[in-house]
Design a protein that fits this description.
Strand content: under 5%
Largest sheet: none
Oligomer: single chain
Helix content: 55-70%
Order of helices and strands: HHHHHHHHHH
Mean pLDDT: 95
Distance between the termini: 49 Å
Structural class: mainly alpha
Radius of gyration: 18 Å
């Protein structure tokens, strides 16, 4: 993606006091697409092929602006999550959490155990907590077993949140 295209996509982001500087229709027209979800998926796949962290962010911005379904993004997001060349781990966990799918359990469990370098300072383990809450929203034995496995974690925050989710689910 060119810097001009990145600026165009960044114009979809709401800035307090300024609003948005571009519309989704403008972005779609520029890229020759009629569907925001399709464009976002194409941009994401391209960014992954090139391992371009900035363009991953641009693809997720288009996805959010288009209010696109996450279902089509399940496979690329689970593939992208453990890659160490981007910075969108929290957004990926949030997106996977909206699916409430057992297919996301392995990636969400990974998010509870792995701390990306840029989050090394976060003693509150926000990424892990977000993943635990996403696991808590998934019905079925896979998510329950994942939460049960986390209730004995050495990290108190992870333990407490896993226990809260198990209690919320009535599985304590």
């Amino acid at each position: 993606m060119t810097p001009e295209e990145q600026d165009l996509v960044m114009g979809l982001v709401f800035v307090p006091g300024k609003g948005r500087t571009h519309t989704l229709d403008e972005v779609l027209a520029h890229f020759g697409e009629s569907d925001g979800g399709s464009l976002a998926l194409r941009l994401l796949q391209d960014a992954m092929e090139r391992q371009d962290a900035d363009d991953v962010e641009m693809a997720l911005i288009v996805h959010a602006a288009a209010d696109a379904s996450v279902e089509e993004f399940l496979e690329p997001l689970t593939e992208l999550f453990p890659a160490d060349w981007h910075r969108e781990y929290e957004d990926i966990v949030s997106m996977l959490g909206t699916l409430r799918s057992p297919k996301t359990v392995p990636t969400l469990v990974l998010a509870t155990r792995w701390v990306p370098e840029y989050l090394d300072w976060d003693e509150n383990r926000a990424l892990a907590v977000k993943a635990i809450w996403a696991l808590g929203a998934i019905s079925g034995s896979e998510a329950r077993e994942a939460l049960e496995g986390l209730r004995d974690d050495e990290n108190e925050i992870i333990r407490e949140n896993a226990l809260k989710q198990l209690a919320r689910r009535g599985e304590l």
